[in-house]
Task: structure prediction
Amino acid sequence: MRIAQLRCFSTIAQLENVSQAAEHLHLSQSSLSKNLATLEEELGAPLFERKGRKLILNPAGARMLEFSNMVLRELGYAMDDIRMLSTGAESRLKIGTAGYCDRLTECLASFREERPETEFVLTGEIEDMERLDINEYDMLIYPDSWEYQKFKGYPLYEEHYALAVPAGHPLARSPFVRPKSLEDLDMVFLRDGRKYVEFPFQICGALALSFHTQCFADSREIHLQMISKGLCAGFVPMSCASFYQGDPSIRLIPIRDQRFTRQMMVCFRREKYLSERAKAFRDHVLAFFRVKTDAEPSETEVPFSLKAVR
Result:
């Protein structure tokens, strides 16, 4: 199976027409049809049903499209990474984080003032990754939980969660809420992919809280919109509270329960693999966040979700 076959298949699936797909890919129709026929022969199953002039995916084709898109997407990521490594790698810093943090943005801005030519590559969804390798990043910010026990890092900050509700919600005027107040609410949780659902979802499950409805959003923008339009309430880490506070139709209410707080950690690539710029950035981050480095970097021993509900 060749990448060219996957590109041909995905394009036909998108346009539902061989002639249009051939024109889009700058191929002849016969060449495109041959690629599709070869792919179907290798898979041992047809992938489309013909309806008039359209080619419609059958169940096998729909399943194949998922894998095809995944392979092409990962290939695109790999090509982008290789291009970045081959151009300007000395001035580029790669950072992986679990979610968004206002203070990190401030930290990057202050470092840029010292090193104006610095380029940043940020990945904000490391909790959704099946495999996370510190050797692919100059710095990682991650929660103190068992999934990351292989990393040796320093405590960076505590991430407190608040409840975000529409301005007209009955809880909007409350000075704080306790977990029991969350019962029977319509809730929206951040979810990305099959693996990651935001931290408060785990705590609510451990506390056996029962909601009226549970919705899921795959971006913070959609999450905000669902709350501001009155559809749901949701959880917001205070590290990105300013994003929600900019919307006058949303109120943030502190949650009076320590279980809705998690420790965030920071770790760096091994010293011998850090560039001079990355070493300067590491020192800048530690100073900016006032990280105590007099003790050895710590490893997580007990799942945070378990510590939280004891």
In short: The CA atoms of residues 12 and 21 lie 5 Å apart. The first helix runs from residue 3 to 15. Residues 90-156+263-305 form a domain with the D-Maltodextrin-Binding Protein; domain 2 fold (CATH 3.40.190.10). The chain has three domains: 3-86, 90-156+263-305, 158-260.
